[in-house]
Amino acid sequence: MSDVDKIDQLHCQKGIYVTCDSSMRELIKYLDANRTLGCTFVIEELDDTHLFLDAKKIPDLEKILEQRREELCPDINERD
User: Fold this and answer.
1) What's the CATH number where 46 sits?
2) Domain assignment of residue 41, given as a range
3) Rounded to an integer, what distance in angstroms lies between the CA atom of residue 71 and that of residue 38?
4) pTM confidence score
5) Which tens digits make up the pLDDT trace of 33-76?
6) Which InterPro entries does the UniProt entry name for this protein (predicted)?
7) How far apart are CA 21 and CA 51, in angstroms?
């Protein structure tokens, strides 16, 4: 395999390094597995508290997580 062939196989993807607790990590993995955003967005699971996510999907993910928070804890919005 020549150097030119190796370069053709290079794949880069812009992502965001995310630190979270294990419960948030599992929620993000669940949303990814169920394609809640229309496609998968977890690029790599790095360890128990770190994920590498598709940067283009972060705004959509933030909206979904905010909706989930409001569903689970409606009182929080009333205090603000």
Assistant:
1) 3.30.70.1220
2) 3-79
3) 21
4) 0.75
5) 999 999 999 999 999 999 999 999 999 999 999 999 888 887 76
6) TFB5-like_sf, TFIIH_TTDA/Tfb5
7) 11
